[in-house]
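Request: Mind sharing a record?
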Amino acid sequence: MNVLSLFDGMSCGQIALNKVGIKYDNYYASEIDNYAIKVTQHNYPNTIQLGDITEIKGEDLPKINLLFGGSPCQGFSFAGKQLNFEDPRSKLFFEFVRLKDELNPRYFLLENVKMKKEYSDIITKYLGVEPILINSNLVSAQNRERLYWTNIPNVTIPDDEKIFVKDILDYDTEHKKLSDKTIKKHFFYIKNYTPTGKSPTLTTELAHGTGKNITPKCHYEIKNITNEDRVFSPLECERLQTVPDNYTSVVSNTQRFKMLGNGWTVDIIAHIFKKIIE
């Protein structure tokens, strides 16, 4: 079995495959971020890195049985500028389509953010399947709505495992505290956020404590539980994404926050991949 992961990042798809016990002979990855590649190769040294997706040709690869990826979403996101397919990053979706057509894999999976229907309909047209909307809060302590287009049969919404922020906190490590100035600056957002027991969608800003209207949500959740003015640690961000503890520890905290904010919720991908076995 040969697997090709496009926009592989830190290889969350590979974690998911191993989690559900799907055996593969070769795992090909397309990624250009050197820090993410370093994390992948540290954990999965047999990964075959192919580099830039625009330079990959289907004819140069063996038969691919499973193709998946999460193309850059900044041009689609409700949190972004809604630039849709004119955004250079969003145009990379068509590279996914190109390789899907060239390789004709038995199974494919594309993940992306929740977006305007006019955009998702374009993706649906090219992939030939309707997306399923799944919130990561069913299998993790994080609210993270994402769309999944796949021809893997019988994919359903997972059961609610009832995991909350209090379940993923690391009480054994000294954490980065929020300054009084930061707390005062963000007081409006803190005051007007009602904690639900779940983290808001993990982004690099939320994790690293630099976001204007996101970090306080993260802060409020922790404050109510630990009475600490702090943000999530990299380890806690791994747990929010259901990534194994310290999986990303071979790079700096800044890079850990970045790749975890950009990554997949592993247990959602594992839930989808289970259907291949079933």
